[in-house]
Amino acid sequence: MARYVGAIDQGTTSSRFIVFDEAGGIAGQHQLEHRQILPKPGWVEHDPIEILKRTEEVIAGGMRNAHILAADLAAIGVTNQRETTVVWNPKTGEPWYNAIVWQDTRTDRIVAALERDGQGAAIRRKTGLPPATYFSAPKLQWILENIEGVRRAAERGEALFGTIDTWVIWNLTGGPDGGAHVTDVTNASRTMLANLETLTWDDELLALFGVSRSMLPEIRPSSDRRSYGTTRAAGPTGGEVPISADLGDQQAATVGQACYAPGTAKNTYGTGNFMLLNTGTRRVPSTSGLLTTACYRFDDRPTVYALEGSVAVTGSAVQWLRDQLGIISTAADIEPLANTVTDAGGMYFVPAFSGLFAPYWRSDARGAIVGLSRFHEKGHLARATLEAICFQTRAVLDAMIADASIALDVLKVDGGATVNDTLLQLQADILGVPVVRPVITETTALGAAYAAGLAAGVWKDLAELERKWRPDKRWEPRWSADQRKSAYAGWKKAVDRTFGWIELTP
Fold it and tell me: What is the dihedral of CA 496, 502, 503, 504, to 10 degrees?
């Protein structure tokens, strides 16, 4: 019997394929970056064809590196950058336009009009989301209104919509030749088109954004014994492999971190930061700027929900130092550079490149570096960048405490940036809460693999998966309460300086 499970992790900056063994260890992997297309300030796009090509290449590379054949895979799970929006022709498989990435802010006037016209309260009630450029529906509306021929194509049945999971699964299961047009509850809950209570497409929301139901994928469980379809992408020999799981990346990381009990939380450090708190089968409306979202649904069991704090720019701020400013050569260089100074010297960096997400939801904000003097050098900017990641997480945690009346005993962390020990010590200092990194930090891919393996019978239940979680290292807070209070007060002053930079009058 096949005892390996594959995970496609299609992220904002790269695609990877990881093969996990029955113990949850990594047997082989491969990763490739794709281009970030930036046509105008605030616009962020990806080439869907390039993403598909990279996905196929990393599957092949991961299989080679694991030294296995398709017959050795019990199933494949998919996890993805979530709100990024693709529209394509189902007859040809060609995209009508580039994918509009979750970071993109071109829809700010559409979003402002929703609030101006009094639609915000209904959207929050139905979807658990505030009107924001972050989500898929305004991006889809923009494509329908601005790309020649797309709306007419949709009326003819020649335009399908999907987030990246839908695009990848449709292509891997046949594309124009019978590909499965599906998504799961977690990705659907991020579109602003699905009713969070029923987890079905909502007619009033479709009418609001001018979207035809025929464009939309079928909403399926995140882990499905029936599978969504099969693929030969794992290799020409060994037969077809079922694709049996699909979760948005942050929900997948929650599964990979074994946050199955209400009240458990994780924080993922990637292009952005995303903290999720499991609230069980209870939907908790936020009054503090958080999102209420689907966390996962396994087969015919009830959907589990979460509160989420989404921060747009964290790891991508480090990329900015590398690619735009050139003060570091690799992302790993930021840690030794930050350690050339003992603190940020009163400098604060608020990387609001795409506005501010949770808990502020200010599309009118833009990035700022404040507190500068001739004293400061690049080491201070590097340290201020790491502190910015941690301060933004503090704002989210404070909102979670207010909404759910919880006090975290420990924060589980994962994602690429968690190799940075200085970052995690600063995070413990700024939160005043211990921070724990697991042995397997690629928890996004691991969660997709766990969900697929459950569907395929590789693992029995969540209790078995929970026993597999192992800590690697723990950081205890070192700052005094007064130091923590003073530093965070300075951060809040810096955030205030970023508001109102962009005029959003529709």
Answer: -90
Residues 353 and 312 sit within 8 Å (Cβ to Cβ)? yes
d(CA 448, CA 186): 12
- What mean pLDDT do residues 245-272 have? 92
The pTM score is 0.88
Q: Which residues contact 426 (CB under 8 A, 6 or more apart)?
A: 386, 387, 390
Where residue 235 falls (left for φ over 0; alpha for ψ -120 to 50; beta otherwise) is left
Contact 368, 497 (CB under 8 A): yes
Give the position of tokens 């735009």. 324
Please name the residues in contact with 449: beta carbons below 8 A apart, sequence gap of 6 or more: 5, 6, 7, 18, 20, 24, 77, 245, 256
Q: Cα separation of 82 and 296, whole Å?
A: 14
Residues, the chain: 506
Helix, strand, coil shares, percent, the chain, to 5: 35, 25, 40
How many angstroms separate the CA atoms of 463 and 467, rounded? Answer: 6
Q: What does the longest C-alpha to C-alpha distance in the chain come to?
A: 66
Give every CB contact of residue 343 below 8 A, 6+ residues apart in sequence: 383
Helix (H) or strand (E) holding 388: helix 378-404
Name the residue type at position 121: A
Cβ atoms 128, 196 nearer than 8 A: yes
SS3 assignment, position 76: strand
Instruction: Please tell me the predicted confidence (pLDDT) of residue 237.
Output: 63
**Which stretch of DSSP H or E encloses residue 304?**
strand 304-311
DSSP class of 310: E
CB 429 within 8 A of CB 453: no
pLDDT in tens, 47-74: 999 999 999 999 999 999 999 999 999 9
Q: 3-state DSSP call for residue 293?
A: strand
Contacts 24+ apart (CB under 8 A), 231-234: 231/76, 231/172, 231/173, 232/70, 233/55, 233/56, 233/59, 233/60, 233/172, 234/6, 234/59, 234/63, 234/69, 234/70, 234/73, 234/76
Whole-angstrom Cα distance, residue 302 to residue 291?
Answer: 19
Asked whether 185 and 199 are in contact (CB, 8 A), the reply is: yes
Name the 3-class secondary structure at 190.
Answer: coil
User: Hunting for tokens 């050569």 — which residue is that?
Assistant: 329
Mean of the per-residue pLDDT values for the chain?
93
